[in-house]
Write a structure and sequence with these properties.
- By secondary structure, the protein is an alpha+beta fold.
- The protein is built from 8 helices and 10 strands.
- The strands form 4 sheets. It has a 4-stranded antiparallel β-sheet with strand order 7-8-9-10, with helices on one face. Strands 1-4 form a two-stranded parallel ribbon.
- The longest helix is centred in the last third of the chain and has 30 residues.
- The chain is extended, with a radius of gyration of 30 Å.
């Protein structure tokens, strides 16, 4: 097997050419980064809609209260496999005589159906008699319901996803940056017609795109090409840069603010309506717990995103 030997400078040039690819491939963000970013975005959007209504709201309750009976103590970024029906779980590993995904248990298993020590945690928000018995009042019952109710939690999650729908649609109108890189190394041996020759080519193209309210799309690219040729003592290099941009504006069927902004308008209105609905649900939840009247207990609704 033939070996290709590089000089110190050739190795350095190859490393510099591969640097953009390494930055792109190795600079990925973790699950925790995206989870925290989504939490901040939802908190901002819900707070923004509350300000439009003239309300003052506390921080959005993103996660299940740790004192809840249904709190999951495993990592939110690497959750353990929850308890499953033993017979149904067989299909996770083999279905129709085909092997399933082998990594279901990579983060461990969680066999608990409820949080450990949830009874002791109730001491922090509920009232107890001297004998240790739960003493329910209207205030304690409602507080206990808010912390432990699956229905209450489901309405919070619906509002959360409704806010993410708005964030996703707003992103369509944000300037989006990107970069691509293609690096090639071509070698010709001493027996080739042109003699021994080694060529390293790298093409890096940063750019941006932006969509406007009327449907116009702006695209800007800067193509930077670097070519190094190693042919014995006669090494050469070339550099080329090309700036290009385009702007596309639909004028007929799929253009205009009425068409382009309609999905965002619907989702913005939906989030505002869901915030109002959640406040009504909270009032109805109180009457449901205290007097058992569920007449007005209806919460946020989600129609889905418009991607």
């Amino acid at each position: 097997m033939a070996r290709i030997r590089f000089t110190r400078w050739q190795s350095l040039l190859i490393a510099l050419a591969a640097l953009p690819w390494l930055l792109v491939s190795g600079g990925g963000c973790s699950r925790a980064f995206y989870r925290i970013a989504a939490d901040r975005e939802v908190d901002f959007l819900v707070g923004q809609k509350a300000a439009d209504l003239g309300w003052t709201m506390p921080r959005f309750p993103t996660y299940v209260d740790p004192r809840s009976r249904y709190f999951d103590p495993t990592s939110p970024d690497a959750p353990a496999m929850p308890f499953d029906d033993p017979v149904a779980h067989q299909y996770m590993h083999k279905v129709n005589r085909m092997s399933g995904w082998p990594c279901w248990h990579v983060y461990g298993d969680w066999w608990g159906l409820e949080a450990p020590n949830w009874r002791e945690a109730m001491q922090g928000y509920a009232e107890f008699t001297e004998e240790g018995r739960l003493k329910l009042s209207a205030e304690t019952a409602v507080r206990t319901g808010i912390i432990n109710s699956a229905s209450y939690r489901a309405n919070i999650e619906t509002l959360y996803i409704s806010a993410l729908d708005v964030s996703s649609q707003r992103f369509e109108f944000v300037t989006q940056l990107y970069t691509t890189n293609a690096t090639n190394y071509l070698t010709a041996g001493a027996l080739s017609p042109v003699g021994e020759q080694n060529t390293l080519t790298t093409l890096t193209t940063p750019g941006l795109t932006r969509m406007f309210a009327a449907g116009g799309t702006l695209a800007v690219n800067i193509a930077n090409s670097f070519v190094w040729q190693f042919a014995g003592p006669n090494s050469t290099n070339q550099t080329h840069s090309l700036l290009s941009f385009s702007f596309l504006q639909p004028l007929l069927q799929y253009g205009g603010r009425g068409y382009i902004l309609e999905p965002l308008t619907i989702l913005e209105r939906q989030l505002l309506a869901n915030l109002r609905a959640f406040q009504r649900y909270r009032q109805g939840f109180y009457t449901l717990v205290v007097i058992g009247d569920a007449t007005n207990v209806s919460g946020p609704q989600r129609d889905g995103g418009f991607g």
